[in-house]
Amino acid sequence: MNFWQPKLETMKRSDLQDLQMRRLKDTVKRAYERVPFYHQKMKDLGLTPGDLAGIKDARPLPETRKGDLRDNYPFDLFAVPRDEVVRVHASSGTTGKPTVVGYTARDIDAWSDMVARDLVMVGCSREDVFQNAVNYGFFTGGLGIHYGIERMGAMAVPSGTGDTKRQIEIMIDFGVTALHCTPSYALYLAETVTEMGVAGDLSLKIGCFGAEPWSDGARMELEEMLNIKAYDSYGLSEMFGPGVAFECQEQDGLHIWEDHFLVEILDPEGEPCAPGERGELVLTSLTKEAMPLIRYHTGDVTYMMEDDCPCGRSSVRLHRFLGRADDMLVVRGINVFPSQIEDVLLKIPEIGDYFQVVVDRKRHALDDISIKVEVRDIAFTGELADLARLQKKVEGELKSVMKIRSKVELVEKGSLPRTQGKSKKIVDLREI
């Protein structure tokens, strides 16, 4: 199948809005009839699916937030019977419970087609050998990209994560031409390639990087060190996963597929932002069967770009993402919330009320997360071994919840800064 789809990708705005409206009506009707959460929400607002006459009528529809997924854990937002769900994925939430999403067979097909469209857009073809160097577990980046690679006909190399030198050997031995991983891992790979002196042995042409913020400076370094064109990818598990938006070969903004998503950018008061005005991305899924979401607040801050793209695609382009509207951090592709950390620390008697998370990325290294925590007087027994045990205990408890290793630094009570407002719990030193 050809995944350059000009009928959809270059559709006139009026035709696209007609398609969106048909799909939105179907989505809202199914959610109202099959998902108690949405039925009650719409009832509370005095709305029924019949009130939806045009795209502008979407604004009064109920909003959905990550907390709603957590409150309906694990399957209460599903709009199909359990036996129609062929897969689930999950991402970290603000507590120990993940946010769970489900897929029907047609959802998997739609997602695979969307990712295939993305990969063709950046120049991939059936001749490519595509290495997918991300986690293949609950994280959507593994299987999501993998199915897209296979759908567009390239050779998928599911190398997963870890063992960097082996990853590089695979690149050389298999003649890998395209790579998908997090940008921080790509920088580490590039540095290791340079140290090994094998840059000239690589066949790489294309790099697709996402799951965490990265800068134009990082793009320039990756392109120079790996001799590739580096493309930005955006996705979230609540809306399928990777592939929701992707750069084209112009490398100037991410095309978001409006045949699958209704796109809003809202200011903190919930009002629409004009093109060029930054706000929170809010999405409504138009094609998801298992778990349709209406006006979902992604927490990601961006803005719509005004000018037409020279590539000819007519979908809205989003500027490279500028940060978060909430307090979530993305570290090595993992969602980390200060509230997660706080929940863990409050359960340890020796730990005080104040902590500070410091995230840094040394040159070409993976993200490093360290947590300064104040300890109560009872922790100071005079034995260094007791403090060492406490430090190890805190690190272990945090890793079990965050699913990522952090370095804990124990500090005396009163060491961390106090402010009149909210304490500064996050110090992000990465250049993004």
Automatic annotation (TrEMBL):
Domain of life where this protein originates: Archaea
Q: Name one GO molecular function term.
A: ligase activity
Origin organism is Candidatus Methanocrinis natronophilus
Q: Which residues form the AMP-dependent ligase C-terminal domain?
A: 333-430
Q: What is this protein called?
A: Phenylacetate--CoA ligase
Keyword list (alphabetical) reads: Ligase, Phosphopantetheine, Phosphoprotein
Domain AMP-dependent synthetase/ligase spans what residues? Answer: 79-283
Question: Sorted alphabetically, which CDD domains does this protein's record hold?
Answer: PaaK (cd05913)
- Matching InterPro entries, A to Z? Adenylate-forming_Reductase (IPR051414), AMP-bd_C_sf (IPR045851), AMP-dep_Lig_C (IPR028154), AMP-dep_synth/lig_dom (IPR000873), ANL_N_sf (IPR042099), PA_CoA_ligase (IPR011880)
Q: Does the keyword Membrane apply?
A: no
The question of whether Phosphoprotein is a record keyword is answered with: yes
Q: What is the lineage of its organism?
A: Archaea, Methanobacteriati, Methanobacteriota, Stenosarchaea group, Methanomicrobia
What PANTHER family does the annotation carry? ENZYME, PUTATIVE (JCVI)-RELATED, PHENYLACETATE-COENZYME A LIGASE
